[in-house]
Amino acid sequence: MLDLLIHNATLPDGRNHMSVAVQGGRITEVTQGFTPEAATASEVVDAGGMLLSSPFVDAHFHMDATLSLGLPRLNQSGTLLEGIALWGELKPHLTFEALVDRALAYCDWAVANGLLAIRSHVDTSDPSMLAVEALLAVKKKVAPYIDLQLVAFPQDGVLRNGGDGTRGVPGGFDNLKKALSLGVDVVGGIPHFERTMADGAASVKLLCELAAEQGKLVDMHCDESDDPLSRHVETLAFETNRLGLHGRVTGSHLTSMHSMDNYYVSKLLPLMAEAQLSVVSNPLINISLQGRHDTYPKRRGMTRVPEIMAAGMTVAFGQDCCMDPWYSMGSGDMLEVASMGLHVAQMTSQPAMQQCFDAVTKNPARILHLEGYGLEKGCHADLVLLQAQNPIEAIRLKATRLKVWRRGALVAQTPARTAALSLPDRPVSTSFLHTK
Ligand SMILES: [Zn+2]
Fold first, then answer.
1. Does residue 46 lie in a domain region?
2. Distance 411 CA to ligand 1 centre (A)
3. Mean pLDDT of the chain
């Protein structure tokens, strides 16, 4: 007997009248026209033709800063640099309990939104490892319902923050290594925040060598500025090739690529593709933080998503921030993230809009190296039923998550969005779905 049978569902690839059977937390069958009469199941759900997807995945987040908006004050300039300064002001006041409480509250929102896997950076600059210990505790606590992957993120730099680990001074590099030894999964970095271009490049080399040595994945904040000469992604790709880290390295943000010379980019893209770099763009944050030094015209400051995809690389859209020193908005809704990415990158063709949905589902799953993700026999029964008929409509409506399952168990549900109407000669309600 099955644990769960969902029938009459549409899948993201367009197949409809599909049934998904679940047993022991795994998908045991995905077939067309499989009816409830054909099998017995403890729970049978009629999807009503709506979209059934694998869960959303966020490849870039900061769970140590989330929901801290206004502590100790608000960001007045709206810039990345004031956000970093503000986070520095907040850090001495952080407590283990408050960090855990805020992170768990965000995870509640995530689950309600069908977001069941998150890669979060955690600031390793503080030698006390307070934020690291807190997020490791959160990772353990949420493991039954969220895959939380942690990146050792040296917010204050590895070289500018008190030495490079060879000078006998506990510095940014030592603190990062300590975080890895405590159980943090991925090597981070922030080369554009080091004092000079040369130090930035040196930090990329140092961190990639560490990852190679320890067999870790890499995900660096890289070139998060409007400076067309910020080219650390070139070093990241070069080091990835040199150390044989192909498919294991991610460049996050890469906003300077928006402003780079086109000839240089024509040379850069093949180098990045050769290294099989993955890219995470964070549309909500990039459109808010970049271009702040411009008058008009004001640059969008998001990296070249369609061009990077066309070069064969895996690109994801990340949330990055939610109600923190950098960004006052957000709710863990990856469809809002996809919608912003679609608009800023002008990805408006039908295939491009479909790619925007992939950028918050299967692409980030690949970047996180998630095991058992997908809508195939044998995959984990992690599923989201959306009040939309296809992925494009899901993005357009930021569709209601009707039901969210984790390992075949229902973990969240939301009533369908329907407005009652009182209009002459018109239907009594609408749910915003497009009927042809
Ligand atoms: Zn970030």
1. yes
2. 28
3. 95
